[in-house]
């Protein structure tokens, strides 16, 4: 199971078993969770997908999960919305905040 790595401020949330589509709060919050963690963990397939989309802040790991650094804001966040929404990683699909 993948977890975002919390660094900047406390944002309480959980990873759902299944993606939650159509969360009304997410449409207006401006992507707080995309600014609140140091990194998100990626599968190899996700790593390759984000690389093909031009990601600059990828971390390849030989032993652990690969990562996309999102410290101080994910590079794919544009005007408060995810610019790769249809291709975002699984952890982004399953995270929901509780604040
Ligand atoms: S999960 Fe919470 S913080 Fe993230 S976009 Fe939705 S409402 Fe905003
Ligand atoms: S990929 Fe999209 S949903 Fe995931 S952290 Fe970046 S902007 Fe947010």
Helix proportion range:
10-25%
Q: Largest sheet, described in full?
A: 4 strands, antiparallel
Radius of gyration (CA) equals 13 Å
Could you give the count of β-strands? 8
Q: Between the first and last Cα atoms, what is the distance in angstroms?
A: 22 Å
Question: Can you put this structure into words, describing what you see?
Answer:
- The protein has 99 residues and is an alpha+beta fold.
- The protein has one domain (5-97).
- Helices cover 19% and strands 24% of the residues.
- The protein contains 3 helices and 8 strands, in the order ββαβαββββαβ.
- It has helices at 24-28, 44-52, 90-94; strands at 5-6, 13-15, 37-42, 58-59, 66-69, 77-78, 81-82, 95-97.
- The chain has a 4-stranded antiparallel beta sheet with strand order 1-3-5-4. The protein has a two-stranded antiparallel sheet with strand order 2-8. A two-stranded antiparallel sheet has the order 6-7.
- The longest helix has 9 residues, at 44-52.
- The chain starts with a strand and ends with a strand.
- The mean pLDDT is 90.
- Residues 31, 34, 40, 70, 74, 76-77, 82, 84, 88, 92 line the site of one iron/sulfur cluster.
Give the topology:
Layout: E1 5-6, E2 13-15, H1 24-28, E3 37-42, H2 44-52, E4 58-59, E5 66-69, E6 77-78, E7 81-82, H3 90-94, E8 95-97
Antiparallel strand pairs: 1-3, 2-8, 3-5, 4-5, 6-7
Task: Briefly say what this structure is.
With 99 residues, the protein is an alpha+beta fold. It has helices spanning 24-28, 44-52, 90-94, and strands at 5-6, 13-15, 37-42, 58-59, 66-69, 77-78, 81-82, 95-97.
């Amino acid at each position: 199971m993948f977890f975002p790595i919390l660094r900047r401020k406390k944002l309480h949330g959980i990873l759902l078993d299944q993606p939650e589509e159509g969360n009304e709060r997410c449409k207006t919050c401006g992507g707080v969770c995309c600014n609140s963690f140091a990194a998100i963990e990626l599968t190899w397939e996700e790593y390759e997908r984000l690389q093909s989309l031009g990601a600059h802040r990828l971390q390849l790991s030989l032993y652990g999960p690969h990562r996309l650094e999102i410290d101080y804001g994910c590079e794919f966040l544009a005007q408060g919305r995810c610019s790769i929404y249809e291709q975002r990683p699984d952890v982004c699909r399953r995270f929901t905040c509780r604040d």
